[in-house]
# Entry
Amino acid sequence: MNRWQRRIERAQVLEREYPAAAELLRFYREIASFQQRISERMVGGETIDLDSPRDMPHALEFLELLERTAPTELAQTAALLAQLEHWNPADPAVNFIGRVLSQPFAERMASSSPVTDQTSSSACPVCGELPVAAVLRPEGEGGKRSLVCSFCFTEWSFRRLLCPKCGEEDQQKLPVYGAEPFPHVRIEACETCRTYLKRIDMTQNGLAVPEVDELATVPLDLWAAEHDYAKLKANLFGL
# Structure
């Protein structure tokens, strides 16, 4: 099973487990399926202009998909963009479209740049983006912490007790919060810089797909915002 199919099938499972996120996950499945088709069509050496989503391969095809499947406001915006020759790069919808279209290319590039060494940098060692989530994977009798890039989904090892935003190392200032409905997902917070990211614990749920399980747990983001924490990096949907 390829990475796109894993994401699609995981989203389908989580739709049933977390009804509050079902609409978002159904939309995500449409996007992941579209990205899979882009990936299958890519040819060696193909490049894209990240500064011009309007001119990216498959842009108009994606707009048609958004008109059919996106939430009403985004669908209407897609219909308008389809009529325009020039797009405003500051428009959040344009940024979203560009990110969706470019992610398959970013992942292809990342696949040829494996990362093996632990780093203290919170930026992706391949593309330089910030992480969208942390991951605990089984190692010995505990778990080894990694970070997952928000763009190319590269995963790299990162110290267990270290804030990826400000470098805080004091365990007392790095609280971890959870909620009963999400036993394998936690909020890793920092009291020094008031940022957080979600941690997906693969030692508790080996079937999790970090970038999908992160999407499905929106109530944790709402809780964090209510307690004045800012997310280190928003996910694809700006959450």
